[in-house]
Amino acid sequence: MGLMGKLICQTSIKTDGDVFHDIFRTRPHHLHTMTPENIQGCDLHEGEFGKVGSVVIWKYFIDGKHMVAKERVEAIDEEEKQVTFNVVEGDLLKDFKIFVISVHVDTSGIDSLVTWSFDYEKVDESVKDPTPYLDFVLRLTKDIDTHHLPK
């Protein structure tokens, strides 16, 4: 078992992929209204929403626990519809030296395909892979999709 790892999950959405991408690019602070069971808040700590180098603080609920993560926006690729966040402080760094989250939206099909990936390095061999976070982002994705579908 290695200390470095990568987890990937994909799901399709009916929501316009550009809208989904824009939420993570410029409006992550709106997520708490779309998925309040998962996200309690997203506050801008420094910089500007939609800009590389900006820092946001996430308050979220996973595995029965309230958690906090401070993340720097490492990359925004408009053409590929991908946003990459690097966790720089917070609960995740108790178990991981490195935790990078990417969300990519492929709009080339009938439905858009959302791909989440986590690149990480565990602090030691006793730490489990962050698989609960895959379930978390899938729930989050479905909530966003449901929020944007016609009622």
Write up this protein:
Residues 2-151 form the Bet v I/Major latex protein domain. It comes from Heracleum sosnowskyi. This is MLP-like protein 34-like. This protein is of the alpha+beta class and 151 residues long. The chain has helices at residues 17-26, 31-34, 131-148, and strands at residues 4-13, 39-46, 55-62, 65-77, 82-90, 96-106, 112-122. Strands 1-7-6-5-4-3-2 form a 7-stranded antiparallel sheet. Strand 4 (65-77) and strand 5 form a beta hairpin. The longest helix has 18 residues, at 131-148. It is globular. The N and C termini lie far apart (47 Å).
SSE diagram, text form:
Elements: E1 4-13, H1 17-26, H2 31-34, E2 39-46, E3 55-62, E4 65-77, E5 82-90, E6 96-106, E7 112-122, H3 131-148
Antiparallel strand pairs: 1-7, 2-3, 3-4, 4-5, 5-6, 6-7
Strand coverage percent: over 45%
Discrete helix count: 3
Q: Give the topology string: H per helix, E per strand.
A: EHHEEEEEEH
- Structural class category: alpha+beta
Indicate the overall shape. globular
Helix content: 10-25%
Q: How are the strands ordered across the major sheet? A: 1-7-6-5-4-3-2
Would you count the extended β strands for me?
Answer: 7
Distance between the termini: 47 Å
Low-confidence stretches: none
Largest sheet: 7 strands, antiparallel
Average pLDDT number: 95
Radius of gyration (Å): 15 Å
Domain Bet v I/Major latex protein: 2-151
Protein name: MLP-like protein 34-like
